[in-house]
Amino acid sequence: GDTSRIAEPPIEANEYVHRVMRVQEPFKQANRLFHPQDTIVHTPSGSVGPHTFTVIAGPCSVENEEQIVSVARSVKQAGAHYLRGGAFKPRTSPYSFQGLQKKGIELLCLARQQTGLEIVSEIMSEADLDLFAEHVDMVQLGARNMQNFSLLKELGKL
After folding, report:
1. What share of the chain is helix, strand, coil (3-state, %, to 5)?
2. 96 CB contacts (<8 Å, ≥6 apart)?
């Protein structure tokens, strides 16, 4: 918020205050003014971040074992670092295919066993946190859930 009306000297006079900084910038937890260092994510397959070129590839939706294993072999042969497949599919209509869900995660794990590729999949619900924490190497969060603050808070704890 607006800190221009707050007087610094009384706050600085407190023996427990190291320094006072006026913060007018939004997104203080991620703002480059407060965290100038780059974010680099390290995984067994390598690093994702600045000065790296990472390919994450795979089908929009995991449909069956033959499909996901075949795609996994193809993306590995093409040089991809991670296999991405949608086990849970956000759809506009509740009557559309919603993904294989837990079975889709199991099939992704099978493809990982056969290719060594780490797996990436999109989480849709807090109810699936344990499943993802146990089986998925990298969690994808879609645009529809970027305002789902309860899910974001729980993901932050993983």
Report:
1. 35, 10, 55
2. 89
Report how far residue 84's alpha carbon sits from residue 119's, in angstroms, rounded to the nearest whole number. Answer: 6
Specify the residue for token string 């992704």: 108
Residue pLDDT, tens place only, 10-43: 999 999 999 887 777 777 777 888 788 898 999 9
pTM of the prediction?
Answer: 0.79
The answer for 8, left when phi > 0, alpha when psi is -120 to 50, beta otherwise, is alpha
Which run of H or of E encompasses 113? helix 102-115
Distances (CA, A) of 77 to 37, 112, 146: 34, 14, 33
